[in-house]
Amino acid sequence: MTAPLRLCVRRGPEKEAASPTIRVALTLPSDIDVIEETVELLALHAFAGRIPAQRTRFRFRVTLAEALANAIQCGNGGDPDQPVHVELHLTEETIRVQVTDRGTGFDTDHTTDPTDPDTLEYPCGRGLFIIRHLTDHVEFNDQGNTIWMTLPRS
Fold first, then answer.
1. Mean pLDDT of 97-104
2. What pLDDT band is residue 1 in, cutting at 50, 70 and 90?
3. Is residue 7 part of a domain?
4. How many CB atoms lie within 10 A of CB 114?
5. How far is the C-alpha of 45 from the C-alpha of 90, rounded, in Å?
6. Average pLDDT value for residue range 66-95
7. Which domain holds residue 94?
8. How much is the pTM?
9. How many structural domains does the chain have?
10. Which of 57, 72, 104, 113 is least surrounded by Cβ atoms within 10 Å, i.e. has the fewest?
11. Domain for residue 44, yes or no?
C-alpha cells in the first residue's frame, strides 16, 4: 500500500509575484499507481472556478503525468520511499508546475531525440519531448532533478 497523498493549498500574494498567486503543494510516493489520482487532484485546483479550453486541460494533464512518470521512474528509480514533490503556482493567466525528485538528476542539455531514426527504439526521451512540445516554457535546475513547466490557465 502506498502512503497517502499530502496536499497543501495557500492562497495569497507571494513575495516575488506582482499579482495574487495560489500555491498548491503535494508530496507523493514514487509509485506510478498514484499518477492518475495526482493529476486529477491538481487539475481540480488548477482550473477551480474556470472553464478552460479542452486543449489547455489536455496539455496540463499530459505534461504533468509525463513529468511525474519521469520523476518516479527515472529520478527516484521507482523507490516508493523516495518522495516526489509537486507545486502549482497559479496566477490569473498561468499555471507554473514544479516537479522535484530525490534523484541525482541528468544533463538537461544532452537528451535523446526520440524522433531521430537512430534512437526510435530507445526507451528514454519521449516524455521530455512531449513536455517541451506541449508547454509554453520549460526550465530545469542545475542538478536536473527539478522541472518547471509553464502553461496557460485558460
1. 96
2. very low
3. no
4. 17
5. 9
6. 95
7. 20-152
8. 0.87
9. 1
10. 104
11. yes
